[in-house]
Design goal:
CATH topology: 2,3-Dihydroxybiphenyl 1,2-Dioxygenase, domain 1
Number of strands: 4
Strand content: 15-25%
Helix content: 10-25%
Number of domains: 1
Distance between the termini: 36 Å
CATH architecture: Roll
Largest sheet: 4 strands, mixed
CATH superfamily: 2,3-Dihydroxybiphenyl 1,2-Dioxygenase, domain 1
Structural class: alpha+beta
Radius of gyration: 15 Å
Strand order of the largest sheet: 1-4-3-2
């Protein structure tokens, strides 16, 4: 068996590279690492894991509640949870409360 030590990167399909780069850097707090020379694939640091935004034609997920199990999530400290939710809401992010008590969010107005 292979002994995996960490996740090195994951990719997120998005329809608007500049908008999503701004969202993940300015709102979520990822740090921009680089963008491939042709300008359509930014690499971001998400708390030590590389997040790659990959351009795809819309609609990427036409039914928001039907993601087919494909998703990503970020952890915040328990004591920062409410402040993080308030911050995201203040930036126009809709955050529905799931039956499990966990939350999910999507970028407002554009299904990315």
């Amino acid at each position: 068996m292979v002994a995996i030590r960490a996740v090195t990167h994951f990719s997120i399909p998005v329809s608007d590279i500049p908008r999503n780069t701004r969202f993940y850097t300015e709102v979520v707090g990822c740090r921009h690492l680089s963008t491939v020379p042709r300008g359509d694939t930014p690499f971001l640091d998400a708390a030590g894991t590389c997040l790659i935004l990959v351009k795809r034609d819309p609609p990427i997920n036409p039914v928001l509640d039907d993601h087919g199990g494909v998703h990503h999530s970020f952890a915040v400290a328990n004591e920062e949870h409410k402040a993080a939710l308030d911050y995201l809401r203040a930036h126009g992010v809709e955050i529905p409360l799931r039956r499990t008590g966990k939350v999910a969010f999507s970028i407002p107005t554009v299904r990315c």
